[in-house]
Structures are given as C-alpha cells and as structure tokens.
C-alpha cells in the first residue's frame, strides 16, 4: 500500500455512546470516496462497499464489534492483467478490552485471538472497515481461463529441462555403475 493517509474515517468516542445498548451503524462511502479507497488499497476499482453492524458494550468497560463487510473489488489478473471482479462478503468481529494485559517481554508470542485489542478512547469504524477490506482482498486474482504457463529458463544454446527429461542425477548414476563395472573386470 502506498504511504497515503487512510481515505476514510468514521470515529466514535466511546464516552458519547450508550453504555447499555448496541450502537448500530451502516457505512456506505460515496463513489469518490470509494475511488480514493481503491487507489489507497492498490486495486483498480471498488464499485460497492458497505460495512454494517453493531458496536456493543460488554461488561462495565469492554466493547465488541460485530459487522458484515460487503464489497465488490476489481483487481488486475496476475496472469493477463485483465480486470477481475470479486464479490467479498465477510463477517468482521473485534473486541476492545479495558484491562488487556500488555506483553512483558521484549519478544512475545502472537496471541491466538488476534481480534482483541486494548480499549482506546475512540474507535474508528472506518479504519476497521479498511483493515477488513485489505484482509479480504484476493492475493492472486485470476481471470476466467487464465493459467500460468511453464517457465523455461536456461542458458543460451542449451535446451531447457522438462519434466519428461531424465532426472538430473541419472547421468551420475550411470557413470557410477560404469566405474563399478570397470573395477569388476580388473
């Protein structure tokens, strides 16, 4: 991703939210914002993007987000560079804990639950949406029928090695057998 600032933000100050009931949300950026998000994410286009769900209080100070990401992304095919359209429908869950223990060592293992974070004063739903979108993008989009061909790389004047060619050590085995036969004849 380029070093561009995030193109979309929707911050919610937790102290301003209801502490006993869910705060429902539905984010659907306009066409210009989706264009900026596509540029920021390094994709060709983002015809549809919707992030909807609820931010719910848990206990006295913790919060939980449960949402659905619905998007259509257009990326370049990794084989032909033709545009490939992909529909994304992902469930998104995050938890923010007020008393999340901090790692005590210089090096710490990554926790099994990577959806849990320390509780901030402000939760940016736009940042959560952008992160979920980036994680859901196909890594190697391919156009229908696009296949990788076999790469044949060799020095000039030499024939490339193919699967049907003998194994690289077959000649060595034959040479060793020949030497063993020579010592038997002496």
Give a verbal description of the structure.
The structure is a single chain. The protein has 186 residues and is an alpha+beta fold. The chain has a domain of 126 residues. 21% of the residues lie in helices and 31% in strands. The protein contains three helices and seven strands, in the order ββαβββββαα. The strands form two sheets. A five-stranded mixed beta sheet has the order 2-3-4-5-6, with helices on one face. Strand 4 and strand 5 form a beta hairpin. The mean pLDDT is 84.
Topology:
Elements: E1 11-13, E2 23-27, H1 31-41, E3 45-58, E4 62-76, E5 83-97, E6 116-118, E7 122-124, H2 125-136, H3 170-185
Parallel strand pairs: 5-6
Antiparallel strand pairs: 1-7, 2-3, 3-4, 4-5
Rg calculated over all Cα atoms: 28 Å
Order the strands across the largest sheet as they lie in space. 2-3-4-5-6
SS element count, helices: 3
Q: Residue ranges: pLDDT <50 for 5 or more in a row? A: none
Beta strand count: 7
């Amino acid at each position: 991703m380029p070093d561009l600032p995030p193109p979309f933000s929707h911050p919610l100050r937790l102290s301003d939210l209801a502490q006993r009931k869910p705060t429902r949300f539905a984010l659907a950026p306009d066409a210009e914002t989706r264009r900026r998000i596509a540029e920021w994410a390094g994709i060709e286009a983002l015809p549809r993007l919707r992030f909807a769900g609820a931010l719910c209080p848990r206990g006295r100070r913790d919060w939980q987000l449960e949402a659905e990401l619905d998007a259509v992304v257009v990326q370049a095919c990794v084989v032909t560079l033709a545009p490939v359209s992909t529909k994304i429908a992902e469930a998104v869950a995050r938890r923010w804990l007020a008393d999340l223990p901090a790692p005590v060592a210089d090096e710490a293992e990554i926790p099994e639950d990577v959806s849990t974070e320390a509780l901030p004063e402000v939760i940016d739903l736009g940042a959560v949406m952008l992160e979920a979108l980036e994680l859901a993008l196909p890594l190697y989009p391919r156009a229908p029928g696009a296949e990788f061909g076999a790469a044949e790389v060799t020095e000039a004047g030499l024939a490339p090695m193919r699967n049907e060619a003998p194994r690289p050590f077959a000649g060595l085995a034959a040479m060793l057998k020949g030497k063993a036969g020579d010592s038997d004849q002496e």
